[in-house]
Write the structure tokens for this entry.
Amino acid sequence: MVKISDTILLAFILTGTGFLFALNLVTGPEKIPTGVVLDLLSGGTADNPAWSFIVESRLNRSYVALASGGALALAGLILQGYFRNPLAGPDVLGISSGASLGVALVVLGGLSLTTLSGGLALVLSGIGGALLMMILLLSVSRFIRSSVTLLVAGLMFGYFSGAIINVLFQLADQHETRAYVVWTLGSFEVFNHNEGLLYLCAILICSMLSLFVSKALNALVLGNEYASSSGISLGRTKLLVIGITGLLAGIVTVYCGPVSFIGVAVPQLVRMAMKSRNHLLMIPAAFILGGFLAIASDIIVRLSGGSLPLNTVTAMVGAPVIIWTLIKMNRRAEV
Amino acid sequence: MKRFFACLLTLLILGCVSHPETDSDDLSVFECDTFEIKYAKGFEVIHGADFTKIITKSLPDNDFFRDSILLPHTANLPEGAIKFCNGPLRRACCQSLTHIAFLDKLQSVDCVNGLCAMDYVADEELYGRLVKNGVEEICNGEQIQSEILLKLAPDIFFMYPFGDAMQADFSEKGITTLLIAEYLEESQLARLEWIKLFGLLVGRADEATDYFDKVEADYLEMETTIGDGSPTFLMNLPYGDSWFMPSSRSVGVELIEDAGLTYLYSRDDGTENVPRSLEEVWGDGTVADWWIIIAERPAGFSMADLLAENEVYREFESVKRGDVLMCNTTEVDYFAKGVVEPDVILRDLRFHMSKGWMKHEPVYFFRLE
């Protein structure tokens, strides 16, 4: 049964995201009249030849931000549900670090990213890194009961990846290190229109798949035994969780850089705002709210003239939410 | 427990190491001619009867620092002179590749035995010579490797001024240091004038002055005054979501203005790079006549490679006219060797702007084809 307040909330978030999407198209350092933006979006032309590229770039950034923020929030929601830990997330558990290691192996290893083979290697390596980290984490989770200890294990995997990246960084030449540093700053400005559409499709397909784990996640809230007795296949759920979260976090990290905090903070905000604990509702809510925050961050990045990197902005938004969650968890433990 | 502390105490006492004192009895002396400093504000040379004193210092707008070293003419060092150079340099370590460029111009690069960022020396001939001379890398990233530096025992270690604590540490360990901040100077000729300081230290002050005078004359002869109708230019390439555009008072911009172009962002006062949004620069690119790029890209970087980075560049006026000049820092030592050859850079720019009437073989800037 869907609560009315949740329906209103969903509609509100959706409207807000739509508003921010439109705002991202018409605002920016370059003052382009709204009429001209609309004209360009409907296939018209403008006096300034650069404006069509600027508007196209704003459009690409908007839907890439929407998809990326949504994907990270979704990955975070699934991980938090599966591990039953509100601090789980792709960056906390080391999944984003695994993807970063995959990217570092290719970029700092000297493959040209402008070639098809280089680009393909980058995508496969990044996603492979994320999946590998997820598999490692799940393997370790069999021996660790405490979810907090598991988070620490995830952090350690992240540090280990970081150490390997540092070694690669020291060995790389200046072109490679420059490319890698730019990538680590994070950005939604990485696509031409066709690549952007491909990216959007990939994220949407993976996100749709997440609906298949909603029932299992609802059951897992009450524990593994309860889930098993409800007819949930724990093995199949584990595989789906590995696949979906690894793909979502891997794809976003490869294309946009390691975007932090959204994956941990947004599921918290969703839980805070929604009365329902049904993942069938929380999944779309997390996706839209993740997109909302990512577009808002992108607007700030663009209006700062790029002087604020994406990761800085998402940290400013996400870190207070996580601290608040920690305080709440601590209070609950005391009670 | 008592035994443990006793052992520890014994170990600490035995572990005290005595260091040799610096001895000024066995002093080699300098023969220094006086010279004039015309442009540089970051160093002074005081010529005394018994010694020449070199002072390096910060400029008014920068964090304060001051350093000095004595070059004795006689064995009588003034009282309290704690830092002196024992005769023209035989062994020197450098933290910047610019220091190497100065020494190379004075045919004194063979005195260098340690260097930071050696892999970044773009001049293959110079690199080969450094390798042949057994020059050692003394930095790991930004960190100076003290052990290697101590092993090399240079007569002097030329340092950036943003490592005051390190400088004190090296002094304690008996390494003579000198803070060098030629990059703070406000004009190309002022930067170049630091060659006189290096000339003094390697005992080639006359050669340094002659070289400076020659380059100065060439530069001033080619310098052009810009007017209202001068063609405009923008600079460089984006880095992530930002386009770091040099400010109007930056030395690089002033050099291009000396070639006769007007900077599109002349309203930005200051000397540091200002981050600009991609959108703003894309818009400005459609009107700027020239695009001067100083960036690090793979060797052989072409116009096709540039356009592959972003389609919007096709709409840039400079791209349409073919007036895109690039200094690819992978292939040329703009930031080091360029400091001692501002006349060559200026000639490069004038050559490209002359559209063929001037005879010159470009060294730093090439038109992207």
